[in-house]
Amino acid sequence: MSQFKMLAVDLGASSGRGIIGRFDGEHLTLEENHRFPNEPVFSAGSLNWDILRIFHEIKASIGKCVLSDDRDIASIGIDTWGVDYGLLDKNGKLLANPYHYRDGRTDDILDHAFDIMSKDEIYKITGIQTMNFNTLFQLLTDMRDDEARFAAADKMLFIPDLLNYFLTGVKQTEYTIASTGALLDAAKRDWSHDIIKRFGIPEGLFTDIVKPCQKVGGLLPRIQEDTGSLSARVVTVGSHDTASAVIAVPAKGDDFVYISSGTWSLMGSEIAEPAITATTARYDFTNEGGVGGKIRFLKNIMGLWLEQESRRQWIREGKSVTYDELSDMAVASKPLAYLINPDDPSFSAPGNMPRRIAEYCRNTGQGAPETMGEIVRCIFDSLALKYRFTVEKIDEIKGSHTPFINIVGGGTKEPPLCQFTADACARPVYAGPVEATAIGNLVAQAMASGEIANISEARHMIRNSFEITMYEPGDTEKWDEGYERFQKLI
User: Fold this and answer.
1) Gap between the Cα atoms of 386 and 456, Å rounded
2) What kind and span of H or E run contains 445?
3) DSSP string, 330-395
4) Secondary structure (DSSP) of 4-29
5) How many Å apart are CA 408 and CA 267, to the nearest integer?
6) Is 268 helix (H, G, I), strand (E, B) or coil?
7) What is the set of active-site residues?
């Protein structure tokens, strides 16, 4: 049986992969052809992405296709994290390495921004959760702190659009990634000229917005010289990684809540039109663009970053430990002994996470977790309870009880967290697929080429192609008690 082949470039906050997808008309299979670290670089007082190294690795992934049986890939799609961008000068040259959203330069920008336009005004237009690293606030920081560089900027491209430009020479902005930055009118699904004008951002900085599942162009001749000749076309996918991951939620019907679980936990639901009300503003929900005309109504929750950064600290201290070992230690530790608000600002920056978690617990009168197992158990318990808080608010806004939760992404490799989520939320959890972002990326490419008709057909195919694990809720009484304590922290 003939196969339709594609290359998904999936860039996360700590690593990147090239994934070959092979679709035979009924099933999708995946094969990783390249993996590389994607660690930010701190130098000269700022935290930046090493974008040229990332681009080099993307070309390496393409080159491996050329030198293998996958030289006949039909398309290439790139997805990444949101909000960050590169600035190009009038000659199309990158002015500097893009800032990392965790860089401290925007720590004090919100007061300045709200002097120009209030938080409520911005939210009523964009429907975007207020976070100091939203693209709008990063651009405002550029204008305030680096006038010369900003004055030289001719175009702004989000990270996946920048990488597509490096490959094809085409400058454009994909809708789902643009929707993360608090710069779009959510209802019109286009740039908010009101916001752009009020903040004094040059309108010429922005390129045309295009939908997912569109062809961008072929590889530039120089790229083909570097990688080897390919006839593959670059296409727009759900360029924001969560947009890709949500395509891969293997739910039947429309009544579900998803958690795209990784460095961040993006928890929400699919809706047809933006939900922008006083209630959604109070709970700080966001309305981001989805594939197929949907809105991703969700909340950004600090996710496995808490465990990842804790593990990095322990490794720095000479304690080599795997994630599986940390999970076993967490399960062996006392449940619900210590709780944190995962979204407390003290946890957002890189550094000694275990110390900050212990200080938070001590300062809130709980004592302090001491062992690695106690720290990770605290993280897992707190995330599960934050998921309960969030799903209850989604139910309140929708006016109905969501019967189950789908978890996709890397967090599905943490069975304890999946089980704790089912217990805390008192509803079944379906976990999988693990490679949701890459799968969604590939599905969008297949839709662009007409191999798959729509998302409903794609989800049916995904259910038949990948393993899904069900977690039934267990002892919910102790979680009710823990939830009472947790609500006092948020």
Assistant:
1) 29
2) helix 436-448
3) HHHSPTTSS---TT-GGGSSSS-HHHHHHHHHHHTTS----SHHHHHHHHHHHHHHHHHHHHHHHH
4) EEEEEEEE-SSEEEEEEEEE-SS-EE
5) 10
6) strand
7) 241
- Name the pLDDT band for 1 (thresholds 50, 70, 90): low
Q: Tell me how many helices (H) and strands (E) the chain has.
A: 19, 21
Domain 249-432+453-490 sits in CATH at 3.30.420.40
Q: Is the dihedral angle over the CA atoms 368, 372, 374, 380 positive or is it negative?
A: positive
What angle is formed at CA 96 by the lines to CA 133 and CA 130, rounded to 5 degrees? 10
Whole-angstrom distance, CA of residue 352 vs CA of residue 346: 11
Please report where in the chains the tokens 């990770």 appear, as a residue.
Answer: 376
pLDDT tens digits, 349-370: 999 999 999 999 999 999 999 9
Residue type (1 letter), 99: Y
Residue 134 and residue 83 in contact, taking contact as beta carbons nearer than 8 Å? yes
Domain ranges (residues) in the chain: 4-235, 249-432+453-490
Residues 346 and 30: their CA atoms lie apart, in Å, by 38
Helix runs in 39-116, H state only: 51-66, 109-116
Q: What per-residue confidence (pLDDT) applies to 400?
A: 93
Give the up-direction half-sphere exposure of residue 90: CA atoms within 13 A in the CB hemisphere.
Answer: 2
Q: Does residue 253 surpass a pLDDT of 90?
A: no
CATH class of 4-235: alpha beta
Is residue 247 within 8 Å of residue 443, measured between CB atoms?
Answer: yes
**Per-residue pLDDT tens over the stretch 200-239:** 999 999 999 999 999 999 999 999 999 999 999 999 999 9
* Topology agreement, domain 4-235 and domain 249-432+453-490: yes
Residues 417 and 311: their CA atoms lie apart, in Å, by: 16
Phi and psi, residue 233, nearest 5°: -105, 140
What's the CA gap between 352 and 347, in Å, rounded?
9
Q: Which tens digit of pLDDT belongs to each residue from 291-322?
A: 999 999 999 999 999 999 999 999 999 999 99
From the CA atom positions of the chain, what is the Rg in Å? 22
3-state secondary structure string across 378-402? HHHHHHHHHHHHHHHHHHHHHCCCC
Contact 194, 116 (CB under 8 A): no
Q: Which of 9, 452, 23, 482 minimizes the C-alpha distance to 237?
A: 9
Q: Residue 342 corresponds to which tokens in the numbers above? A: 């995962």
Nearest C-alpha neighbor of 101 from the set 40, 145, 156: 40
Average pLDDT, the chain: 96
How far is C-alpha 316 from the chain's CA centre?
26
Residues 6+ apart with CB under 8 A from 362: 368
Q: Calculate mean pLDDT across residues 396-418.
A: 95
